Every structure is written in structure tokens, then in C-alpha cells.
Amino acid sequence: MSRQPDPNRRSEQARQAILSAAADLCAEVGFAATTVEAIAARAGVGKQTIYRWWPSKAAVLLEHMQRARETSADFPDTGDIRADLLAQTTAVEALFASHSGAIWRGLLIAAQSDDIAADGVRALLEKAVTDATKRLSTAQVNGELRADADLDMAVEIIYGPLYHHWLLRARPVPNGYMKEILNVVFDGLNPRRH
């Protein structure tokens, strides 16, 4: 008696192959040069298989970035906000330096003119900002941060320099960069001493 192949398993294998192929291609040739046709060829599937699950290459790459962020840039809560911010921003810095960084840069550029990319980028950024604000809020309640600190502004101040440095690529991000940024930020966020 022969066993029939499990179509769900075959579908998941194809899905993973597509995500990997898209990520590898984008890292190698850039977002603009990555095409659905090239992704399909590298993954060993037909274009229709890709379009069955995603409406565009941007949607495929957004799913890749969502998975990459979930596995490498979660927000820790050890009870020490400064250490947690340093760990998390260092993880984001490492993500930017990986081949996922090239993919994210391409998606940010595409988001300026592609609605699917814009919606996906916005959703990923909103999740990241929510996670950061939630962790800062916990620290505020615990007295680690000023009670009157604007947490949304704090997130922008913490992550803005990292994005600025990374997007402009004027020079490599120096060692200890985020530690120095956090030192400056915490001078303003620390509870006031009487």
C-alpha cells in the first residue's frame, strides 16, 4: 500500500522555499531587481504558486521581515530598562547588518510608491513602536523613567539616530553607538533628583 503525499506539507515546503528564495535574491541583487519570476525560478515553483499566497514581491519580503524581526529583535524585560534597550537596539543593529537589512532598506524605499509595501512597513513599525513604548511604560511605572516623559517621543529619539545612520550609510555605525545614544537619552529620562 503506497502512501499519498501530504499536500499541506508540500505547500509549507514551497512556502518556505519561496520566502528563502525571495530573501536571498533581494539581498544579492536588491529590491528593485528582484522579480516574482526570479523568485519562482529560484524556489522551483510556478509564479501562480507565489500569487496564490502573496499579491506581490513586496508582500513576500514583508513576511520574511516579520519572521526575522520575531526571531531576532524581541523586546526583553529584565527589570533594567537601560540594559533592555541596549540589548534590543543592538539586536536591531545586527538585523540591519544582516542580509535582512538590505531587504528592509528596499522595502522602506518601495513604501514611498507601493501601497502594499507601505502598509506592511507601517504595520511592522507600529508593532515595533508598540513593543518599545510598552516596555518604556513598564519602566516608567517602576520609577526607572520620569513620570512625565513622553514615551512616543522617547522611542523616536532612541531609534531615530540608528535609522538615520543606517539609511544614509554615510559611515559605518561606530562600536558602542547605541550605548552612547542611550547615555544621552537617559540624562533626560532619568527621574529628577531633588
TrEMBL record:
Residues 12-72 form the HTH tetR-type domain. PROSITE patterns: HTH_TETR_2. It comes from the Bacteria. Transmembrane segments: none annotated. InterPro entries: Homeodomain-like_sf, HTH-type_TetR-like_transc_reg, HTH_TetR, Tet_transcr_reg_TetR-rel_C_sf, TetR_C. Keywords: DNA-binding, Transcription, Transcription regulation. Residues 35-54 bind DNA. It holds the Pfam family TetR_C_11. This is TetR family transcriptional regulator.
